[in-house]
Amino acid sequence: MSLKSMLRELKEMKDGIGNISKRGGESKLWRSRARSHVAPDISKWANLPPELLLDIIQRVEESETAWPARAVVVFCATVCRSWREITKEIVKTPEQCGRLTFPISLKQPGPRESPIQCYIRRDRATSTYLLFYGLVPFEGESDKLLLAARKVRRATCTDFVISLAADDFSRASNNYVGKLKTNFLGTKFTIHDSQPPCDSIIPSTSRSNLRFHFKQVSPRLPTCNYIIGIITYELNVLRARGPRRMHCILHSIPVSAIQEGDIVPTPSTSPYSFNEQFSPLTSSRGNEPSIDTSSPSVPATPVCFVVPGEPLTLKNKAPRWHE
């Protein structure tokens, strides 16, 4: 079997197209199972020799460097456990290869030489902000969606709920990433993560509070209660309409990370599913976004996770008007 035909069959297994999809009423059931089920190790694909499997995935990773073609690499990770482990071993972090592959790539450091270019599409009617991969939109709405945010106004603040899907903002969903919380004046933005950052520690507090926080943490039900950064703006006469001085403190990244030769804390394990979270998503149109702002397991006091050492502080240049 050639490599091209093998990849075509893998894609059919992922999308649920084939003989089963021709049975009419069973097609939807097959597609739902294909998205949420990873093939067991007893499948015929798990019996491939490790050397052959390594060579296949290496060729796929080297040939498919851009989206949406890079979705084939994600499909390889959903075949079975042996395929998934080898794919995770071959695929490098964005800092090393400059490419985004899995959902965990969005939380890993990017390349130091050149930034990863993205653009934001705003929908004022639904208060939704969509972050797409690339510098300019592609034709046919085949852009790769990275993150989506939904603006939720409250009495004293405003929350921007962040998700991996444009139509799912529920805290109980695996698509849930975190939120950005602003104060009443819009001068302070607190970044909350649904999962504790890499190599983080909890500030000193009472033993009862520590036990309470750890019991509430669940990979299946994110609590969005881990503060990883704070962004503040200085007020001026024109408030948000004029240039403002900005300060950004990242508690999850030490200041030594920006020095040459140092390593940035990089998470390697992902709480997100390979099957659902980073599959190709073309258009954001469709069903009305669902959002669940209430969660019984959210502690009253957020936990601020910090890494050992001084946190990284970023300051913008002196703001001025464009001539």
What features would you describe in this structure?
It is a single chain. This protein has 323 residues and is α+β, with helices and mostly antiparallel strands. The chain has 2 domains: 3-91, no CATH class; 118-315, no CATH class. The chain is built from 8 helices and 12 strands. The strands form 2 sheets. Strands 1, 2, 3, 4, 6, 7, 8, 9, 11 and 12 form a 10-stranded mixed sheet that branches. A two-stranded parallel sheet has the order 5-10. The radius of gyration is 22 Å and the shape is globular. This is Tubby-like F-box protein 5. InterPro entries: F-box-like_dom_sf (IPR036047), F-box_dom (IPR001810), Tubby-like_C (IPR025659), Tubby_C (IPR000007).
Summarize this structure as a short list of keywords or feature phrases:
323 residues, alpha+beta, 10-stranded mixed β-sheet, two-stranded parallel ribbon, 12 strands, globular
